[in-house]
Design a protein that fits this description.
InterPro entries: Beta-barrel_OMP (IPR027385), OM_autotransptr_brl_dom (IPR006315), OMP-like (IPR051692), OMP/PagP_B-barrel (IPR011250). The protein is mainly beta. It has one domain: Porin, CATH 2.40.160.20. The strands form 2 sheets. The protein has an 8-stranded antiparallel β-barrel with strand order 1-4-5-7-8-9-10-11. β4 and β5 form a beta hairpin. The longest helix has 16 residues.
Length: 202
């Protein structure tokens, strides 16, 4: 976590001294990469093997790619749409009880979101984000009866917000927080993320 916060500070410093990408840095298509901190917090989520008591959380590194389109609808107002895919590292959640072992391993996440922002300067956008997210996870349970395993897709919603700044010709950087609810009913499956991103704007 300290390394992530240090990276965020470095990104903010670079953004503060960066120049504008163009006269319209937040108007048009873009692609990018992102990485950062991910925390999954589980209670008793529903799984293909039943409603299983987990009661654990797990911090992990996450990284991925995204693409989207921004449109300036007013001199200071930007709206946009974005899709992305992310993968975690060392993000399996494990609970042991006696001779039983339960593992929930998130494989990948997809998201499709909209965002709306305000240009505090010509090159700096603050924004909010909301939309759909989906996580592919594999559940494995080992107990006295043997080992059972199954994968499933979990649908959910996410909200978040952040700041993005044009730092060079066709390049912008951003820092963003996201919260996702993947519970699919009463069972708790929450996700928190802090993501650093770099985008190329066409």
């Amino acid at each position: 976590m300290k390394k992530i916060l240090s990276s965020a500070a470095a990104l903010a410093l670079v953004a503060g001294f960066g120049g504008a990408a163009s006269a319209e840095p937040f108007n048009g298509p873009f692609v990018g990469v992102q990485a950062g901190w991910n925390k999954d917090d589980l209670g008793t989520p529903s799984t293909p093997l039943g409603d299983l008591q987990v009661g654990r959380s797990q911090d992990a590194f996450v990284g991925g790619v995204f693409a989207g389109y921004d449109y300036k609808i007013a001199p200071r107002i930007v709206i946009g749409a974005e899709g992305g895919v992310n993968f975690g590292a060392d993000d399996s959640i494990v609970r042991t009880s006696g001779t039983s072992r339960l593992t929930i391993d998130p494989k990948r996440s997809l998201d499709l979101t909209a965002r709306a922002g305000y240009l505090v300067t010509d090159n700096t956008l603050i924004y909010g984000r909301a939309g759909y997210t989906n996580v592919r996870a594999r559940t494995t349970l080992t107990d006295a009866t043997g080992t059972r395993s199954a994968s499933s897709n979990r649908d959910g919603w996410l909200i978040g917000g952040g700041a993005e700044r044009a730092v060079a010709q066709n390049i912008s950087t951003r820092l963003e927080y996201r919260y996702s609810d993947l519970s699919e009913g009463d069972g708790k499956f929450d996700r928190h993320q802090i993501l650093l991103g770099v985008a190329y704007r066409f």
